[in-house]
Amino acid sequence: MILKTAIQKIEKEKFSFLLGYLTVFSIILIRNILESSFEGKQLLGFSVIPSHSFFMTFVHFPLFYISLFTWIILIFKLLTGENTIKIAKTMTVGMTVIIIAPLIDIIASKGSGYKLTYLTGPETITEIHKFFYFTKDLLQASWGQRLEISLVLIGSFYYVFIKTKKYFISIIAPIIVYMIIFIHSVLPNTIAKIPLYLGFKNLTPKAILTGGIFSIDSQNYSVIFSLFTILACVLTISIEKKDEIKKVFNLKSSSIAVISVSLGIIYGLFLIFRYYPFILISPIFYLSVFLSIIIAIFINKISQLEINTMGFQLLAIAIILSGFSFGYIFLTLILISYIVKRFLKPDWIFVFPIFIAGFSLIFQETTFKTIIPLKNKNVELKGKKLTGWTFFLNGDYNKALLNYLKANSISYNIETQKRIGQCYLNTGNLEKSAQELQKIKNPDYETFLSLGRAYEQNGKNEKAINIYKKAIEEVFSPEEFYVKIAQVASKNVMESEMNEAINKAFLLGTPKHKLYQIKADFYFRKGNLEDAMSMYNNSLAYNPRSSASLTGKGMTYYRQGKNVEAEEQLLKALEIEPNNDAIYNNMGVIYIAKNEYEKAEKTFLKSLKINPNQEEAYYNLGLIYEITGDKPQALKMYQKALNVNPDYLPAKLKIKLLKK
Amino acid sequence: MILFLIILVAFVCGGFLFMGIREPGLIKNWLKSSRPLITLHYIFPTVFGIVLGSYIFSEPINFYNSILLLFSILFSFQTSVIINDINDIKTDYFSNKNSILNSDSFPIKYYTLLSLFFFIISIFLALLINYRLFLIVLFGHVLHFFYSSKPLRLKRFYPISIFMLSLAALLTAISGYALFDSYKPFISFPLKCALFIFIPLFLSLNFRDLADYRGDGKTNITTLFTIFGFEKGRHINAYLVLLSYLLVPLILKFYPLFIATIPLGILSFYFCLKKPFNEKMIFYIYFIMVAVLGVLLHTKTEIFLGPIF
Description:
CATH superfamily of the domain at 2-189 in chain B: UbiA prenyltransferase
Number of strands of chain B: 0
CATH architecture of the domain at 2-189 in chain B: Orthogonal Bundle
Low-confidence stretches of chain A: none
Helix content of chain B: over 70%
Low-confidence stretches of chain B: none
Oligomer: heterodimer
Mean pLDDT of chain B: 85
Largest sheet of chain A: none
Distance between the termini of chain A: 87 Å
Strand content of chain A: under 5%
Structural class of chain B: mainly alpha
Strand content of chain B: under 5%
Order of helices and strands of chain B: HHHHHHHHHHHHHHH
Number of domains of chain A: 5
Largest sheet of chain B: none
Largest interface: A-B, 39 and 23 residues
Shape of chain B: globular
CATH topology of the domain at 2-189 in chain B: Tetracycline Repressor, domain 2
């Protein structure tokens, strides 16, 4: 009864579309800020790099929720037959429910918050009930999310019941709404896996989803959700104003716009293809082409349309946000096309900016340098960079390096230089990596991080600490670099340096579980197992999902000779982080201790499949083969360990012994 | 940076000039209704945040950024004052007939434009400091928007309304603190300080609704006074104000502070019940309290830190 009265009151409330939209956007903004400010690894606005943060906060995240919003409106419209504006008004107020999730998570995690991620793909359909596991703590479903989804489903049931008074339809409503939420959660990774499903296995889903023609990963996500939003808007408008939709999406009258934008894209494709062949593999590219055609049609028609209906206004917003996700050059050119079409005579002149907009989809910030190919080098430079980045994301660092070196030989660029350094780092060429990264005059956040890692892995801990200190001076995410210093100091048993860094990191808001884990690692290395165990327990009290602390606790049990307990902890850690090579490595060590050599071998092989640059894993495999009597194979493994790290002493000793 | 600042100053001057010429009474009327006392109430937490940050991180105060932030907060509050006034036209019709928006001659269009103008200035100033501060200031705008504007207009629902106002004050303190730690200010802002700002304000801010009692009742805005009635509400409000003063030493666990908070609490209690009610007196006492806390912050900063229990 209360709910019914509340809904009636909201429906009677008079406010403009703009106010309604601002409210929805503001709710999404608050959710985003709260979620990103409290989660352990994330920052206010999700990224330390403002341009990435901007797209996440103002384009990607709003589009995700606006898509959900429009789809739920469509479902309610179909089930209840209610006026769209009335549904939207109720939904606008109902959206406040999304602020609940981060707030609950902050409380449940004792202040640090939980990181929420997209589901890994459609195969998670078997885990569709995960959100309703109220007895388990899972990585993909936080307590806040469960409560939020439950409230949405209860709300859907009541809303439809109040409107229809029919139990059957009311029970169907939350099921459909839940499916929509689920589909939104799996959508990005499903699209990224399309080439895989089609049999193309050269590129990983990560390379497809976060690489390609857009330099910022959230731009790719935005393309997906823009299309999904537009689809919902078109369907909603079709129910109310079928003729209007036919008028907009009449290809005949928009043919000039469609042809112009398509020609721009085809021209761009023609230029880039020989340098960047992956473009045709990425589903995001096809979605972008489709979306840009829709934008062109809409721009062509917008001045002739009656845009007072809510569906059209939402459609317009989705299209503006899509324009943002395509980059500022595309957006500017589209705006110019609109102005030309609206105010200039003859209006067909608008084909020029639309053509360039299509071209800019591929060439982005280098559009005006490459559109008239007087210098082929500019096109090649863009192509090499794109190819390099795709290989980089794909984990093919050697191929990435070749492309970046070629790009740098065409024109020196800080970004390319940074990637060259990172490629060397990831291929184990630490000296060269440090050398290349040091060349960068104004290092950014990523450069500091990579340079520090290069020194760290090379055993130059003092230098690594100094680099991290320099990053702190530059105010690049200082708490993260204090944690880095504490970790390096902990590894090298530099107690006072570690404590100082931990204290600073604590002041800057680093989650307590992380700091307890670093201290625990320190005691573990010192051999003080009791203190280590107590610190790991403290860490897990603050975050039971800390895989690093679970692993540490497991290894402490192992050192205490409690192998069964150790295995149990590591299995828990693997449940949380199934792709962590280090955990597999530790697990293998425990299996060796338990004399389960077959299991150990499998575990090390798994670890090496994830990360082939681990001298310890090869060494451990060598140990297994030696124990089981396969000396040639053991020798081969020790040699492989030395290939990864030529200074790895245990492998050198073993080779000496075996050759005797 | 300097170029941006010049553009900003030109934008501010140009904007004021444009609106001053188009609507001569606008600036004068805005100044009249700009509520300087409440503005100060938002500036104090910001200054507190800045000083606290400087102490915790042992870094000197960056005066340039601090001034930018204070102006950003100032304009942010002025934006919310205007949005609130525009949305309160009905309420003011009953309780504040002298409100500038109730005079027929005053064009709301320009008043809305003024709020947009202030919004841009405040956001731009925050952006000049850094991207994080921009997000925090934007967060503050969103809170005020939810508080006064439709469709949520949370000021209608007591105690959510007071909760929002206290949260906004806390946010201004965090913004000051974020000048030093702009990455995780929400986590690293000391919990003790957050409670010491939030709880007393949450208990005491009811007095702001006393003057609008009639209008609130007729426009379905629930406040302490519309729920319990004028007389009973007045008494509850007075006790809550007294309690808020008494809670400060308890939250800070610094009991000598009772020497200041007991008399100031009693004084506020007296002025809350005194007829006719004078809001200014409550603010003046509050400012004395702020001065006391300022001295404490300077001399015994450690009491603002540490565990709560």
